[in-house]
Design a protein that fits this description.
Order of helices and strands: HEEEHHEEH
Distance between the termini: 116 Å
Helix content: 40-55%
Number of strands: 5
Strand content: 5-15%
Largest sheet: 3 strands, antiparallel
Strand order of the largest sheet: 2-1-3
Length: 177
């Protein structure tokens, strides 16, 4: 089969298309274009250095904006010794209503804590009074009895009396401060 004279063209078209795509992709990456101080033009996919003025940026990507330059240093002199006031933007804005609600919630929490502490103190005082009365009764030497699960009366012997006295003293030590 004789080879056509267009065979090299058929092979060259895909290669040429791939080459054009490669070159076009390279230009798509280089989106920034700027002129430096010496007048030389630079093209890059990265933004220009911060020392390049905005007027010297010739082309920038459609979606990108140049980052803001850092704030200028404070002037030196007599004012440099005085503390600089922070900019108004640095102070967090506080909603007065939100602040009032927060303070009210804090006060309510403190009131609840004080009420709980008072309740616990009263409970300890009552336990202390009961333990002291029970200890006095145990120390009096009077015969004491208890009712068991079956409803029968059981007289407390000296061993039980001593353990009850010890328990009452422990309650007094913990609750009577």
């Amino acid at each position: 089969m004789p080879m056509s004279s267009f065979a090299p063209v058929r092979l060259g078209v895909p290669i040429l298309a791939a080459l054009l795509a490669f070159v076009a992709a390279g230009d798509a990456q280089a989106q920034w274009k700027w002129r430096d101080r010496s007048g030389q033009i630079h093209v890059s996919d990265l933004p220009p250095p911060r020392d390049i003025a905005d007027k010297d940026v010739l082309q920038r990507p459609a979606t990108a904006s140049r980052p803001a330059p850092p704030p200028a240093p404070a002037p030196e002199g007599d004012d440099a010794a005085a503390p600089a006031a922070p900019p108004a933007e640095a102070k967090p804005r506080v909603d007065p209503e939100l602040e009032a609600r927060r303070k009210a919630a804090e006060q309510e929490q403190l009131a609840r804590q004080k009420q709980e502490e008072a309740r616990l103190a009263q409970q300890r005082a009552e336990n202390c009074d009961r333990a002291r009365a029970h200890l006095r009764q145990l120390e009096s030497g009077m015969r004491m009895a208890r009712v068991n699960d079956k409803g029968e009366r059981i007289v407390i012997d000296d061993k039980e009396r001593a353990s009850e006295m010890q328990r009452a003293r422990q309650v007094i030590a913990s609750d009577c401060r």
